[in-house]
Amino acid sequence: MTKYNSYTLKDVITASNQNKFTVISTFAGGGGSSTGYKLSGGNILCVNEFVESARETYASNYPNTPILPNDIRELTGKHFLDTTNLQVGELDILDGSPPCSAFSIAGTISKGWNKEKKYSDDKKQTNIEDLFFEFIRVANDIQPKVIIGENVKGITIGESRKYFNKIINAFENIGYCAVGKVLNAADFGVPQARERCFFVAIRNDVLSKTDLNFMTIESIYPNATVTKRVSLKDAIHDIENDASEEQELYDAIENGFLKKWVPLLPKNPKKVVKGSDYHPNKSLFNLIRPCPDLPSPTITQQGQQKGLSGVIHYELDRKLTIKELMRVQGLPDDFKLQGTFNQRAERIGRMVAPHCLSALSQSIYEKVLSVS
């Protein structure tokens, strides 16, 4: 069994103080991606996030980082450059994780396409599938050396592959060589089998100074940093939870529609079991009892909220606590989250797993930024 390595915000700041490369982060959320960049020595110059509770979480952990609160559609590259005192072309990495719920894991475009997207604090966005191209518009203004864009695995499959190719073409049209690949956070020490597509686009003049070219650019992605994946039990077994929060989670099951179904799922299963395995109509497939000896299945922004179908504890009849969710996502143990339980759970579920992005940005630093 690979041991889970817990860490603190002090460790993050110490690593970030190396100032190896500069980053501007859009769609920054509560700071999961920023934590990853900092762990590999990145200096976050400013971020953009339009959801208030996410900004509050970000500022609680990284109070010295300027936050632009606007919807990205209201911003240009000049807003970021003026905030950071950079010139066009100087920035090392522009990061972005535009919302991606319109793409299913099956590679089909869901009913959420072209619809309104709601957040737990009543923030709303429409036409979210257009936001990746707003991100690329801003990238064109800034002309960073490298662009990293994150999205769901489903964008690489089936019908959605057309959208994937459209993104690659858009990067090429603004002067970049681009590639996209799915990485699993469990391969980088995160106790969660969380698969996400990471686009990497390198500015053509920067690429020409490296050993990479359009044929070999995919080698920019890191190899796994663990030989054996961290299990859920190893990550959370030693956590001391708040007793009142635990009781709220038990009560949410006992007093909700899951009361009948959660006790049916075997405790400490040898493999993942789902509510659909026990429901006569094969529904409740989002209700999941994980195997304690494997990484957790993917946690989602909605599934970990109280009373809703999602990942439950491998042994106890309740959802995971906030402290447990932080471990599952690979956050610092003292990371601060703001808002109600549901808002905090949503923040975690929306985050990029820090260790996954740390490995990717470290590879980009070594193979591109340090040699160009």
Topology (SSEs and partners):
Layout: H1 9-16, E1 21-26, H2 32-39, E2 42-48, H3 52-61, E3 67-68, H4 77-84, E4 93-96, E5 116-118, E6 124-126, H5 131-142, E7 146-152, H6 161-173, E8 176-184, E9 195-203, H7 204-207, H8 232-236, H9 243-254, E10 273-274, E11 288-289, H10 322-329, H11 341-350, H12 354-369
Parallel strand pairs: 1-2, 1-4, 2-3, 4-7
Antiparallel strand pairs: 5-6, 7-9, 8-9, 10-11
Helix pairs in contact: 1-2, 2-12, 4-5, 10-11
Identify the notable features of this structure and list them briefly:
alpha/beta, Rossmann fold, globular, single chain, 11 strands, 372 residues, 2 domains, 12 helices, two-stranded antiparallel sheet, seven-stranded mixed sheet
